[in-house]
Amino acid sequence: MTRDEARALDAADPIAAVRDRFALPEGVIYLDGNSLGALPAATVAAAGDLVARQWGERLIRSWNEGWIDAPQRIGAKIAPLIGAAADEVIACDSTSANIFKLLVAALRVDPKRRTVLSEAGNFPTDLHIAEGAVACVPGARLEVVPRDKLLEALGPDTAVLLLTHVHYKTAERFDMPAVSRAAREAGALMMWDLSHSAGAVAIDLDDAGADLAVGCGYKYLNGGPGAPAFLYVARALQDRLASPLSGWMGHAEPFAFADAYAPAPGMKRWLTGTPPMLAMAALEAGLDVWSTVDRPAVWRKSAALWSILAEAGGQAGLDCVTPADPAGRGSHISFRHPEAHAIVQALIDRGVIGDFRDPDMVRLGLTPLYLSHEDVWRAGEALKAVIADRSYRQPQFAVRQAVT
Amino acid sequence: MTRDEARALDAADPIAAVRDRFALPEGVIYLDGNSLGALPAATVAAAGDLVARQWGERLIRSWNEGWIDAPQRIGAKIAPLIGAAADEVIACDSTSANIFKLLVAALRVDPKRRTVLSEAGNFPTDLHIAEGAVACVPGARLEVVPRDKLLEALGPDTAVLLLTHVHYKTAERFDMPAVSRAAREAGALMMWDLSHSAGAVAIDLDDAGADLAVGCGYKYLNGGPGAPAFLYVARALQDRLASPLSGWMGHAEPFAFADAYAPAPGMKRWLTGTPPMLAMAALEAGLDVWSTVDRPAVWRKSAALWSILAEAGGQAGLDCVTPADPAGRGSHISFRHPEAHAIVQALIDRGVIGDFRDPDMVRLGLTPLYLSHEDVWRAGEALKAVIADRSYRQPQFAVRQAVT
User: Fold this and answer.
1) Does B65 touch chain A if contact means CB atoms closer than 8 Å?
2) Interchain proximity B55–A39, CB inside 8 Å
3) What is the C-alpha separation between A4 and A102, in angstroms, rounded?
4) Is A271 helix (H, G, I), strand (E, B) or coil?
5) Residues A364 and A318 sit within 8 Å (Cβ to Cβ)
6) Which fold has domain A3-30+294-398?
7) In chain B, where are the structural domains located?
8) Which ranges of the sequence are coiled-coil (chains A, B) (predicted)?
C-alpha cells in the first residue's frame, strides 16, 4: 500500500464525508476509538442545550419535555445497529450493572439450571460481575473455560452462556448465529456483550435468536466518556425476566409512589434510578451520527482499514493476533510484543494514539466513521518506523501509566 | 411578613450573593430545587470544557488527567456536607444502585441477622430496592413498619435499619444521633438515605456513629438531572463490606485485567462501571459552589425561608404537614389538600414552580443558595391568591401530567 493508493481509496469512500461530523484534534491519528469514541461535532451543541436550556431554563419541566422517555428513545436508536426491534433495547446504567441485572434474572428462569458459563480471558468486568451475580442466587456458580472448550461445556446445568462478541484484546469474533444456536439447543439462554462490536461490525441479534445482550455507549457509538450502556431482551422473554436492581424508574407506576415494587411492562423495567440526562444527551447525539450512515459501507471500510495496518505490521515483523478473516474479527487489530507498552508510548509520541493491554498487546482501533485510509496508512508508517529504528527503547517510553 | 420585611432579611443575608452564582430563568420562582437543583452558572463552562477539550481534544488521555480519580475527588467534596471524612465518601451510580450495593453487603456481615427494617411510606425506591436486595441474600427479608414503630421493631434479627433522613413528602427529619444509637444498641447497622437532606440541613454522620449512607447528587447539591449519587461507609467497616456489583472499576487493579475479582481497598471498591464523566463534571461544578459557602448560614436561612411560607400557608388556611421545629424537618414544606395537583398547576401558571406528590400534597422546596427571602415571600403571596380566588379550579389545571 502506498500513500497514493490510500488516497485513491479515500476518494472512492462513500462514507468519507462522515469524518466532517467529528471534532478531531489537530496532529493526532486516533486509533483508540474502540476505547473512547471521538467527539461528534453536534454533541457540543447538544450537551450545551441540555445544560443551559433544558436544565437551566426549563428546569424540572424538562422531565415532561423529552427526558423521561430518553432511555427508550435512545434504545430505539441503538436497535438498528444490533439487529433488534426498537422495543427490545433500552439505554441505562453501566455495562457492568446491566450484566448483573440480566445474569441474576437469567439465573431465576429455571431453578434446575445453576451455571453461568463464560470464557477465560473474557473482558474482566464480565467475569467479575458474573462472580457477583452468582453469589446472589442460591446454588449458582460461574464456570470459566477456554474459548475452544465453550461449546462442549454447555450442558443441562447451564443457565446462561455469557460471551463477549468481539474480544477486547485479540478482536476475535464469535460466530453469533452458530454459538447462539448451540446455547439454545443446550437449553441455555444466550447473552452477548456487544461492547467491542456494536458500531464495529454487522450484528443481527434477532436473526441469531440471541436472548440477551448488553453493550457500551462510549466506544463505537461515540456517546462520550462513561456514556450510559444498553441492554437488550428478546421480546419473547421480556415478561419473564425482572431486574434484581428493582429501582423506582423501572416501576410500572413510578409516580404513584407505592411501597411495593411492580415491574413496568416491556424494557422499562430494566431502569434503576433517574437517568443521567447530560450523559444521555451526549449518547443520543453520538447515535444521531449513525442514523444517516450506510452501515454496510462502514463494515466494508473497517475491513479495508484493517488490511492496511495488518500489512504494515507484517512488514514490521510484528505478531498479529487478530484473525485475518473479516467475518472472524471486530474492528481493531492487536500485535503481541514483549515491549508493547513502550511501543504504544513511542507511537503516541509520533501522534498516533493507540493503547496497550497488559501484558504484551499493542491494540489499534479502526473506526471507519472518522478515520481515512490515509490516516491509517500514516499510522502504519509510524508503526514501521518505531519498530525499525527501535525508538520505543528510549527511556521515557518505559514509564508505565495507570491508564492508556 | 411584609415585602419590606423580606427585603430587610435579604439585605442582612450573609449568603445573599451566592444567588449570583446560579443561572436562573427570568419570571420564575423555583421551589423545586429539592427535586432538581438549579443550574450553577459555572457548570455551563465546566460541562463545555469536559466535552470540547477533555473529551474532544485530549480524548483517551483524559483518563490520566483527572478522570480516573473523579469519583473519589468528588466524594471528598461531598464529605464536609454530611459530616464524613474525605475517604469515607465516593460519587458513583444512582442512589438506587447504591442502596442495593450497601444493603446486600450489610446483609452479609452477620448470617444470624436477616432483616432489613424500614419505614412504611419511605421513598419508594428505597423499599423497591430493599425488596430486590433481600431477594439476593438467602433467608433475608424486608420488614416495613410505621414511623412510630421503628425503634421497637429493632431486634436480634435486624441486620440493617434503612431510613431516609428527611421524608420526601412531609419533610419530617429523624433524630440521626438518637436513631443511629438505637440501631447500634440493637446490634444492627444504621443506613441513612440523605437524598432530601444533603445540602438541606446540617448532617454529621461520623458524630452520629452512622454506618452507611447514600444520597442524591441532583437535588440540593445541584449536580444536574440524574447526577451521580454518593455512597458513604464508615471507615471501621470499609474492609468488611464488599459490593455485590463487583465491576471492574472497583477492582484492586482494574488494568491488570485479571479474571478473578479482588475488591480495591477503601471506597474505590464501590465503583461498578466506567464513571460517566459528563455527569461527574456537572456534579463537581455544583459542589464547588458549596466550597466557599458558610454552611451554618445556609441552615439558618432555610429555617427563615420556611417560616415565610408556613405563615402564608396558615393565612390561606392550608394544612401544613411539615414539623414546625426546624430541628425536626428538612428544607421543604408540604401542605395537604384534596386539590393539591390543581393548586400546583395554578402556581406554575403564576410562575411559582413547586411540585405535587400523590395523592394530595403540595410540596415546595426552599433552597437557600439561590432563593431570596423576597422570592419566597412572593411565592407565599401567590399561594394565598390561588387559594383565595380559587383559580386552581379552572379546568386547564385539572389535567394531570406524568411528572411535575
Assistant:
1) no
2) yes
3) 49
4) coil
5) no
6) Aspartate Aminotransferase, domain 1 (3.90.1150)
7) 3-30+294-398, 45-290
8) none
**A residues 210-229 closer than 8 Å to B (CB):** 218, 224-229
- Choose, out of B95, B272, B283, B357, the residue to mutate when testing the contact with A (most A CBs < 10 Å): B272
- The answer to whether residues B196 and B126 touch, using CB atoms and an 8 Å cutoff, is no
What is the distance of C-alpha B72 from the center of its chain? 19
- B39-58 tens-digit pLDDT: 999 999 999 999 999 999 99
pLDDT of residue A399: 74
How many residues appear in chain B? Answer: 404
> What is the ipTM metric for this complex?
0.97
**Torsions phi, psi of A332, nearest 5?**
-135, 165
* CATH number for the domain whose boundaries are B45-290: 3.40.640.10
A124 and A151 Cβ atoms separated by less than 8 Å: no
**pLDDT band, very low/low/confident/very high, at B131 (cuts 50, 70, 90):** very high
A337 - beta bridge partners?
Answer: none
Residue pointed to by grid coordinates 414544606:
B333
Is residue A145 within 8 angstroms of chain B, CB to CB?
Answer: no
Please check whether residue B277 is in contact with residue A225, taking contact to mean a CB–CB distance below 8 angstroms: yes
Residue in this structure with the C-alpha cell 450506510, named with its chain if needed:
A294
Q: Tell me if residue A220 is catalytic.
A: no
In chain B, the residue whose alpha carbon lies closest to the alpha carbon of A345 is B61
Core vs surface per residue A229-240: b (16+ CB within 10 A) or e: bbbbbbeebbee
Of B48, B60, B127, the CB nearest to A355: B60
